[in-house]
Amino acid sequence: MAMTKKGSRLIVVGEIEYRWSIRFKPSYAQGLCESPLTAAIELAESPGATLIVNFHAPRPDNWLGLGAWTITPQHIASSIAQGLQSGWKPEQQGATQYLQFDVGT
Questions:
Q1: Is 25 helix (H, G, I), strand (E, B) or coil?
Q2: Which of 11, 21, 68, 100 is within CB 3.0–4.6 Å of 58 for a Cys-Cys bond?
Q3: CA quadruple 57, 10, 73, 15: dihedral sign
């Protein structure tokens, strides 16, 4: 199922346009820093498999006030490249692929 256009952003990596999004509000576990900040990425046109990126960082709007990284389009572009290298095929229908991404690098 394709992600909604509302609240998502476009990014071009290697002449291919992708759509990405981060939840507007933290989930309960994200608010308590029990789970990391995540982003969903798919092709902008005719999406297939989705890439879920787990960043090793709490959300900036966590409820505990812990320091967090701001996820930039450069982080998203790097995670797309890393996902493609690890076998993510965004044009093919299939299972969601998960990627661990260390923001500090």
A1: coil
A2: 68
A3: positive
